[in-house]
Each structure stands twice: as C-alpha cells, then as structure tokens.
Amino acid sequence: MINAIKTRLTRRLKALRGTALAENLPPSRPPCCYLGDQRALAVTGGGHKIFLDTRDVGLTPHIALDGIWEVHIEKLVRRLLRPAATVVEVGANMGYHTLSMAEAVGPTGRVHAFEANPRMVALLRDSIAVNGYDDRVTLHLLAAMDAPGSLSFATHPSHAGSGYVVRGVPAADFTEHVTVEGARIDDRLPDLPEVDLFRLDCEGSEPPALRGAEGLLRRSRDAVIVTEWGSGMMSRHGPVAEHEAWLGGLGFVHCLEVDSQGSLHRRELGTLSDVVLADLVFSRRPLVF
Q1: Spatial distance between the Cα atoms of 95 and 113, rounded to a whole number of angstroms
Q2: Is 152 part of a structural domain of the chain?
Q3: What's the CATH number where 105 sits?
Q4: How far apart are CA 133 and CA 66, in angstroms?
Q5: What is the DSSP letter of 29?
Q6: Is residue 288 part of a domain?
Q7: Residue 18 and residue 261: Cα distance in Å, rounded?
Q8: Per-residue pLDDT of the chain (289 residues; tens, 9 = 90+)
C-alpha cells in the first residue's frame, strides 16, 4: 500500500510545481519552529499558524517550508464559500484546509471538522485555538460512517494523511492501529438545518461518510460536494458504481473534475467507477464561477 501512497503524493506534488510562491506566502516568512514531541509550528501561505507532525513526509515538509498544500483545492473551496457559510469537512487531518475555510466563512459561519486520527485531532485543536477560530470551528474526534460503532483505524508513521478505516486485512506497512468511534453525521448534527459545502478526503471512506449524512444532504438543496475520489480505496466499502448512482439519486447529477492546476473539466455520471484518483465536485445544478 505504501507504493499507492507514494503515487498519490506524486500527484499532489504536481499541484505545487509551478505555483507562484510569492502569491501565497507572507512577505517575510518566519522559519518553522520545532517544539519537541514530534511537533512543529509553522505559518501557512494564508498567514495561519499550524501545528504539524514532524514524522510525516507527505504534508509536513511542504507546509513547513513552502506554506502551501493542495493549492488547487484551496482556491476552489475559497471560490465556493461565502461569509456565514456552513461547512462539513471529513478527513480534516492537520487542518490546512480547515483553517482556510474557517477564515472564508468568517465569525458568523461554521466549520464542522471530522477527523478519526487522535494525534491529528490534538494538533488541529491547538491550531484552531492559536488562530482564534474556536468561535466557528467544531472539531469531532470520530470516523464519519453510515452506522455507529467501534472501528479499527490504521496509520503509517511517515504518512499522517493516509490513515484509514480498516476493512478486512490491514496493509502490512500500516503498523499503528487504534480503535476509534464511528458515527453518522446525521446523528451528530441533527439540528443543523443545511450545509453549503461538504469537503471530503478520508482515504476511501467517502461513500459511508456521505451515506451517514443523507438527511443533511437532502435538507441542503444548494450543497456542493468537493471530494477525493479513488475507486480502489472506495471499493473497500462497496461497489463504487452504487455510490455514484446513489449520489445521482439525491440529485447530484453535475460533476466536475479539478486538475492539479485548478482547471475544471466536466465528467459524466456513470463513468466514474474506474477513476483511479481525482478530485471531483458534485452539485445539483451547474456551477457558475
């Protein structure tokens, strides 16, 4: 499985190549500061202080030294969000996108960030606090699924962003395992009237995470879903074609793929089962930017 992670990382790095760092970094960039206990404090290109896991070789080096990560996703999400918007994020990780979205929605908005990895949650909790976003970000330590219950969660010490809910035999190179709580978003956010944006990157658990939010999705007529789509990982939770059809049944019939340069390309429902890895945008109506 580690080879698959390296392939995914290479794809992410393509999005960083050619990025005009001068447009993303503060004029005077302070160095990353090691705090001990495998923690570091850095500043993102957007000016947010962020706590990082120094064992990680996937995200941490790029955020720590360049201040950016998945710029194509960050820019897309910022285009979709407005002040006072409500966001549900599944797979918050260390919180790079969480902080950016919290800034975008403003003090009257709300971000519900779900993350199953306890170590990532500890880092993100501190990042939320140090940036003064406790008023708008609610952090949920759990795996968003389609049914409640205890789950096995596997992580790789050098790839903090690749932890996943185990189905069957875990990958041999994922040597760290922890039992986590699984819950439905509908059960955790029963009083949330609607949401403007779902952002998901949870290593194949996107289908059960969304199924567990079906009630909220039905209430949110203008919701947009921005999700990582990896058919191989997603197939651990059932046929990808069924998930695709389920989204269409809820009215999410418009699909765009955002490439590493941020360009949007139309995709047709019924053709996504063989997508190896992509970032997709689903909506009930055509999006106009």
Answers
A1: 9
A2: yes
A3: 3.40.50.150
A4: 23
A5: P
A6: no
A7: 9
A8: 655 665 665 666 556 554 544 455 555 656 799 999 999 999 999 999 999 999 999 999 999 999 999 999 999 999 999 999 999 999 999 999 999 999 999 999 999 999 999 999 999 999 999 999 999 999 999 999 999 999 999 999 899 889 999 988 777 788 889 999 999 999 999 999 999 999 999 999 999 999 999 999 999 999 999 999 999 999 999 999 999 999 999 999 999 999 999 999 999 999 999 999 999 999 999 998 8
Domain limits for position 131: 69-283
- Exposure of 169 by Cβ count < 10 A (0-12 exposed, 13-18 middle, 19+ buried)? exposed
Pull the structure tokens for residue 223. 């919701």
The first and second tokens of residue 164, run together, are: 């996943």
Number of structural domains (the chain) is 1
Residue 189 DSSP one-character state? S
Q: Is residue 61 domain-resident?
A: no
14, two tokens: 């393509």
Paired strand residues for 152: 179
pTM over 0.85? The answer is yes
Q: Do residues 214 and 250 make contact, with C-beta atoms less than 8 angstroms apart?
A: yes
CB-based contact 116:139 (threshold 8 Å): no
For the chain, the maximum distance between any two Cα atoms, rounded to a whole number of angstroms, is: 50
| 203's tokens | 């290593």
User: What are the tokens at 162?
Assistant: 């690749």
What residues does 265 pair with on adjacent strands? Answer: 257
Count of Cβ atoms closer than 10 Å to residue 208 Cβ: 24
Q: How far apart are CA 42 and CA 69, in angstroms?
A: 13
Is 11 inside a domain boundary?
Answer: no
